[in-house]
Specification:
By secondary structure, the protein is of the alpha+beta class. The chain is 43% helix and 25% strand.
């Protein structure tokens, strides 16, 4: 029995030695890694493509090509551009910068009267008695926010029905009064602010437009618009 065990151990050691030396490799030549990988990948048919050769998406190419055209379009000369409204001090500073930085651009000053407020009113009724009588009619309609005008203006003995900052708000008040049964209300200018100045520039484009934009940046509250 001991002899059998001895020979079995000897054979096992011999087999282990043969495997370590690669004497048994021929039996597994079709299954070793180099052979399997060669069959699977077919390395001779593989070609590497550089990452920077990837095609540019059509949409991105369109945007890139369109960008220069858009920038050029922004500098197309405009027949007439108006900017304002400046007070006297701002107007002097703005015109000085225009003359210095855009000498080839022609511009003209335009005086503007800005409306400060709008009044909804009933025209003069001719006398205090007639105005008081009309005031009673207005009260019976449930309208209480009004007063009889008694100054020396052309509206004396008319009836004021509200003061509004914008013409749009005043017109809405006229429509509201009509729905309540009071017709004949009108909208007029209550007061006018001091004169303002606007500048009109002709054929503004190219380098002159770029210079103008830089000047305009110093006057952020001013509006750029088409000439009226």
């Amino acid at each position: 029995m001991l002899k059998i065990i001895f020979w079995l151990l000897l054979l096992a050691n011999a087999a282990l030695f043969a495997m370590q030396k690669g004497y048994l490799g021929a039996l597994y030549s079709n299954g070793r890694e180099p052979t399997r990988i060669g069959k699977q990948l077919q390395a001779d048919k593989i070609k590497m493509t550089p990452a920077d050769a990837a095609p540019v998406p059509a949409a991105a190419a369109a945007v890139t090509s369109a960008a220069p055209a858009a920038a050029a379009a922004d500098l197309t000369p405009v027949a007439c551009t108006e900017v304002g409204n400046f007070n006297a001090a701002e107007a002097r500073r703005f015109s000085s910068q225009l003359a210095e930085r855009t000498p080839a651009v022609k511009f003209v000053r335009r005086e503007i009267q800005e409306v400060a407020s709008h009044m909804v009113y009933l025209p003069s009724l001719g006398s205090k008695e007639a105005a008081d009588k009309k005031a009673e009619e207005v009260r019976r309609l449930g309208i209480t926010d009004f007063f009889v005008i008694q100054d020396s203006s052309a509206l004396r003995y008319g009836i004021s029905l509200g003061i509004f900052k914008t013409d749009e708000a005043a017109q809405k008040q006229v429509a509201s009064l009509a729905k309540r049964g009071l017709s004949g209300a009108k909208v007029g200018t209550r007061s006018v602010s001091s004169s303002k100045v606007a500048f009109q520039l002709r054929d503004l484009g190219g380098d002159a437009k770029l210079a103008f934009d830089k000047i305009k940046a110093d006057f952020p509250s001013q509006e750029v618009r088409s000439c009226p």
